[in-house]
Design brief:
By secondary structure, this protein is an all-alpha fold. It folds into 2 domains: about 1-65, no CATH class; about 65-250, no CATH class. About 75% of the residues lie in helices and about 0% in strands. It contains 10 helices and 2 strands. A two-stranded antiparallel ribbon has the order 1-2. The longest helix is centred in the last third of the chain and has 33 residues, at about 220-250.
Length: about 260
């Protein structure tokens, strides 16, 4: 339904979109993709999780209490950290702490900078701003951090002989791992960089699309998208760098000897 230039969705329109999942199930059945269970579970979780968060956000937006906003931001950060940790193929003791520092510090620092400095809102806990911005940053940071950590951990296991050889030639742990760290950071940033290269030409990002569908001025939607893209890129870069620096230190003891963390 279109009212004053704003598109309002009825529950029947949402159900009509949900019916497309049936098509995915049919395709999976005929091509024997073995994805029916995954599709059903993912679809159910999408509806349930978004419906619940919609109710929670409506309540929080109406109250604007800093401690409630802080609580939901903390939950978002913890979920992102656990998700990133679970994607690392060779986990080690302290992995959760490393992901928490890398994603949490980078995500919160960039999000607060975006709200307070860029958007110039001194009320940092305004839920309409800080929650969606931090969510965008965390969502992209967890992908980048998990990719970087997986790449670096695997490389450190694989290149143990070369690293020990460089250490025997008086190289420091960082010097011995420098190239591996750089490759891991590149790996983690590729999704964000690829997205930035084609934004506006191949795809219209979700935030911009949502604003336009809601009737916002396209120019304002573009400006907000530019801001969020740069915040996302910065958060992902900081997160990947911090994650790699934390990971490589786990593979060396106080005497600079290479060890495999358990």
């Amino acid at each position: 339904m279109l009212i004053l230039g704003v598109v309002f969705l009825s529950i029947w329109q949402v159900l009509l979109a949900c019916s497309l999942i049936i098509l995915l199930i049919i395709v999976s059945y005929f091509f024997k993709l073995n994805l029916i269970k995954v599709i059903v579970i993912a679809s159910f979780r999408t509806v349930l999780q978004l419906s619940l968060i919609g109710l929670v956000l409506a309540w929080i937006f109406a109250r604007e209490q800093w401690y409630e906003v802080l609580a939901i931001l903390t939950v978002m950060t913890l979920v992102a950290c656990f998700s990133a940790k679970d994607r690392v193929k060779k986990p080690y003791k302290g992995l959760l702490f490393d992901t928490l520092i890398a994603i949490g510090v980078s995500g919160w620092a960039v999000a607060l900078f975006g709200v307070v400095v860029v958007l110039q809102d001194s009320t940092w806990y305004r839920p309409q701003l800080i929650i969606p911005i931090l969510g965008l940053i965390l969502g992209n940071a967890l992908t980048g951090v998990s990719l970087s950590m997986s790449q670096l951990v695997e490389s450190l296991h694989k290149e143990r002989g070369q690293i020990e050889a460089m250490l025997s030639l008086s190289a420091t742990p960082f010097e011995a791992c420098r190239e591996l760290i750089i490759r891991a950071i590149h790996q983690g940033l590729m999704p964000t960089i690829n997205s930035m290269m084609v934004v506006g030409l191949v795809s219209l990002p979700g935030m911009m699309t949502g604003q336009i569908l809601a009737g916002a001025d396209p120019q304002q939607a573009v400006r907000y998208q530019i801001v969020t893209m740069f915040l996302i890129a910065t958060g992902s870069t900081m997160g990947c760098m911090m994650a790699c620096l934390l990971v490589y230190r786990r593979f060396f003891d106080k005497s600079w000897r290479f060890v495999i963390p358990k």
